[in-house]
Amino acid sequence: QVQLVESGGGLAQAGGSLRLSCAVSGRTFSSYIMGWFRQAPGKEREFVAAIRWNGGNTRYGDSVKGRFTISGDTAKNTVYLQMNSLKPEDTAVYFCAARILDWPIDRTVSGYDYWGQGTQVTVSS
To answer: Are 49 and 39 in contact (CB under 8 A)?
Structure first.
């Protein structure tokens, strides 16, 4: 079993920054994909970013390209989401997710096997 715990959410001003962390415990995989998704009230869960541990390949949702950066520290079993140039429309609960299959880097909710509880990000105008 894999456990994922998000942290780092909170309040930010438009144009500001936050860094989210996802701590991974349980099984360690040689190669897998970690992703970030977000969900605002009344909306579908949306792909934000993902990273492949083996190779460091990354993918981003269209709405965050150029503003957010996903990275990982394998020694600490932690994945990060650096969120810059925040906009009010970034307000959502952000979820960390893990995909056991290491390719392709899936952009869909159904492609991921484990999920964290989520952390709230609120961006004021």
So the answer is: no
